[in-house]
Amino acid sequence: MARPKTGGIWETVKTVVYAVLIALGIRTFFYEPFNIPSGSMIPTLLVGDYLFVSKFSYGYSRHSLPLSLNLFSGRVFASEPKRGDVAVFKLPRDGQTDYIKRIVGLPGDRVQMRKGVFYLNDEAVPRRQMDGFTGASPSGASHPLPQFIESLPGGREFRILKLVEDGSLDDTPVFVVPQGHYFALGDNRDNSLDSRAAGGVGFIPAENLIGRAEFLFFSTNGAAHIWEFWNWPKAIRFERLLDAVE
Questions:
Q1: pTM
Q2: Structural domain of residue 156, as residue ranges?
């Protein structure tokens, strides 16, 4: 019986090691995939969306590394987020949980909610109503939800959902964003635990930023399990594939 060549096994091991190192390098310095498990960013992001986050957009911190290895502090090649960016970050209270929200407040900004209206630096942020957002469940049931387009200073526009004007986070004190921190809201304003809740998210330290959401590479409405390949066509949201995150 012929014995396997040691050199052949070693080449296979090296190939696997190189592949793992390349994948880790891409995830650490370039793009990392994330999925959306909750509805706090509807209508921009839906449950079952899978997206790529650019790791280089804001520079690198220890949270850019696998397992958030504490090899250094602060940020390297730091770049400030822009108002309106959809960003992934580590939850400040535990430094472990990945969150995704929209950055609306920069250092020094005054942020407040009054009767459901978002105020930035003591000015109401304009919003205009559009056709309702139709949310569809895996069963096929649908229901329209009030939808608006909000316009930040500088012209950045995006859609939000606003069901009521007297929710628990619709009237807040004025938040003054500290230096080195950011303020974020979910686009689904009545169903988002975000910077309005001091015990939930609060201000986001710059070091906790992971990257900016760029585009979707997959989306499923949950109507099919992974092994139910015959149901994949009705579960995949083909119209969302490769959509940019605005």
A1: 0.90
A2: 33-238
